[in-house]
Design a protein that fits this description.
The protein is an all-alpha fold and 301 residues long. It has a domain at 12-144: Tetratricopeptide repeat domain (Serine Threonine Protein Phosphatase 5, Tetratricopeptide repeat, Alpha Horseshoe), CATH 1.25.40. It has 15 helices and no strands. Helix 3 packs antiparallel against helix 4 (84-97), helix 12 runs antiparallel to helix 13 and helix 14 packs antiparallel against helix 15 (278-290).
């Protein structure tokens, strides 16, 4: 019995120790970034950049969103030091690490990074997303640089509710998310993304009839998607409603528009598997995994 107990406890101790080490490393990395922020704020960009580099050295233990933030900050420090090419390289890495930001600060930082890289329309999109979530710097930027799109009208309110709902959905606060999406479609009936995300929230909470109704409404109002996310959303709805060929076409289009759309590869892999294309499914699952998403992770939210 003692021998059995030893064999059981020792691996558990190792797991606990590994978890504590990972936590300590994460905590230390964040403390280093905080120190870098202080140096940056005081104008000591050289030391700030060095501290951000030190934090990045913990890379295997940090989330992509955290690393994206650190690369952005290091890029900003490099730009202040006159290292334009180094700054651009860091900004590009920052954007590649976090393709689906979920909070206002991340959207705003990505917008600034895109400005530095000359991607002005993409920058406006990200900064507008940040403004919708209440980021005051983003709203100020829009007023100064894109005044015609800086008014917070009814449509802007609907978009703000959409973004608020997506954040709540990500936190699994489904009732609050559904409430925001419902208010959004009351203001703007043809806001396709709100129908998609409300349907997704209803599916997760077991309201399958409500999910189907919302996905059907999405297909009605969004006959000409304009970007990769819109094509993905419509494809997912079609797959859920049984239109496999239509779904495949939309997933294909989403991936053409964004070749690094990991979730689209994962969902297309599931669809191909259901359609009997085992080789195609395996290739998509592998691509999704390479891009950082498990095929079992579920739909985009």
């Amino acid at each position: 019995m003692k021998k059995f107990f030893h064999h059981l406890v020792f691996p558990l101790l190792l797991l606990m120790l590994a978890g504590n080490i990972a936590y300590a490393s994460s905590k230390e990395a964040r403390a280093i970034v905080t120190s870098g922020d202080a140096k940056h704020k005081s104008g000591n960009y050289k030391e700030a950049a060095a501290l951000y580099t030190k934090a990045i050295e913990f890379e295997p233990k940090q989330s992509h969103s955290f690393l994206s933030e650190v690369y952005f900050k290091r890029g900003y420090a490099k730009a202040a030091l006159g290292d334009t090419e180094g700054a651009k390289a860091d900004y590009r890495i920052s954007l590649d690490l976090d393709r689906t930001p979920i909070n206002a600060e991340a959207f705003y930082h990505q917008g600034l990074a895109k400005i530095a890289l000359g991607e002005i329309e993409g920058a406006k999109y990200n900064i507008r997303k940040a403004a919708m979530q209440g980021n005051m710097d983003a709203r100020k930027w829009l007023r100064e640089h894109d005044p015609k799109n800086a008014e917070f009208n009814d449509n802007f309110e609907a978009l703000a509710l959409l973004e608020s709902g997506k954040v709540k959905l990500g936190k699994k606060d489904y009732a609050a998310a559904i409430s925001d999406f419902s208010r959004a479609v009351e203001i703007d009936r043809i806001l396709a993304a709100a129908w998609y995300y409300r349907g997704t929230a209803k599916r997760v909470t077991g309201d399958l009839a409500g999910c189907k109704a919302d996905f059907s409404m999405l297909l009605e109002v969004d006959r000409t998607p304009i970007n990769a996310e819109a094509y993905f959303n419509r494809g997912f709805a079609k797959a859920y409603l049984g239109d496999k060929e239509g779904a495949l076409a939309d997933f294909n289009k989403a991936i053409i528009l964004d070749p690094n759309y990991a979730t689209a590869f994962a969902e297309r892999g599931k669809l191909k598997e259901a359609m009997g294309d085992k080789a195609g499914a395996l290739a998509d699952f592998q691509k999704a995994e390479n891009l950082g998403k498990s095929a079992s992770a579920g739909s985009r939210s």
